[in-house]
Task: structure prediction
Amino acid sequence: MLALFLPVFLVLLLIGLPVFFALLAAPGALLWLNGQERDITLLYRNLYNGMDSFPLMAIPFFMLAGELMNKGGITLRLVEFSQALMGHLRGGLAHVNVLSSMLFAGLSGSAVADTSALGSMLIPAMEKQGYTRKFAAAITAASSVIGPIIPPSGIMIIYAYVMGESVAALFLAGIVPGILVGLGLMAMVKIMADRYDFPVASRKYTWGERGRASLSAFFPLLTPVIILGGILGGIFTPTEAAAVAVAYAVIIGLFVLRTLSVRELPDILSRAGITSAVVLLLVGAAMSFKTVVSLSHAPEMLADFILTLTNNPLLLLFLINLLLFAVGMFLDAGPAIIILGPILGPVFTSLGVDSVHFAIIMCVNLTVGLATPPMGLVLFVAASVSKEKVTTISRAILPFLAVEVAVIFLITFVPAISMTIPRLTGFVN
Result:
């Protein structure tokens, strides 16, 4: 009977119960009906234990760093830098949108922060230049999923915490896939720009003007260098790197660029705290859910079922990608990783798939799910920012989702795309 926890969980989601409560209610009700009242204590005990982790402290720190940089006008400098490089192309602002997301990804690692920060600036600007609002919202939502792929990434920190992987190895493995997603979206923008005669955003900047734009964006662009350099150099842990990123953002905002004031800090801390609380509560609830998953022996049953389909790892990877894509339509990436990672990861490593490679497949697939109808979180954020209907944005985003799905299958069947950098740096054998 306990194995029914997943169907009950899905039913609770479909009737509109928030994910946090569904993660606790489904297994809790079944434990009670199964006469395992003593095991119910595991739910609330693991709710706290799931959040009480030093590595997970990196998530609120990175979110705070993103809030500080956004409020301090650093996001605007990244957009201006992107426009200096690509604004003269046909469909220039759409290209700027994608490039800005790639740059912003190195600061916050959050798709929601990307959609909110860049969308509030670029969607009105694109609409003023003649783009439809649904297209502007769609490209913003589609490009925002680059945020959790290019390091730093909150989703990869969660995966490393649950599965015991190296955060540095996952960060390095995400660089090329993130860039590929960005380039793929730009290629689609180019095709659509030529077909629909998109406007040019600005004249072509001189090299001197590009140099000045580069200097203006120098300090923001230095952030991922400090984070990755410190982690790879063994100077600090990922959690300490996140704290360093916060300190760097404060120093840059208050004293170097002087775009931030002390009076703004309480509001920034409040927003970052609320966002972090939501994420950590979901992680805690998912860890409780994971306990009941173990008690039900569902991982073993699913593994046996998967292996009865085929022993060919390539075919299994194809099928699992379809499963993850479907899961991403309804479940947020963090809880999905905590629930499915311990079930699927060991199956594929036993078949010879590198654990870091599988981690990237899973993280990228579930990240794309954030922009996938009907429940993709960034679709709702984009709708809120643009005042456009979610259903309208969902139709407009389909060409970009096709590109992202193609990238997922590319990194799935060509492991060198994600594994080369970790191997060259010695984080993967």
Remarks:
- The mean pLDDT is 85.
- The chain has 22 helices and no strands.
- The first helix runs from residue 5 to 14.
- Residues 54-424 form one domain.
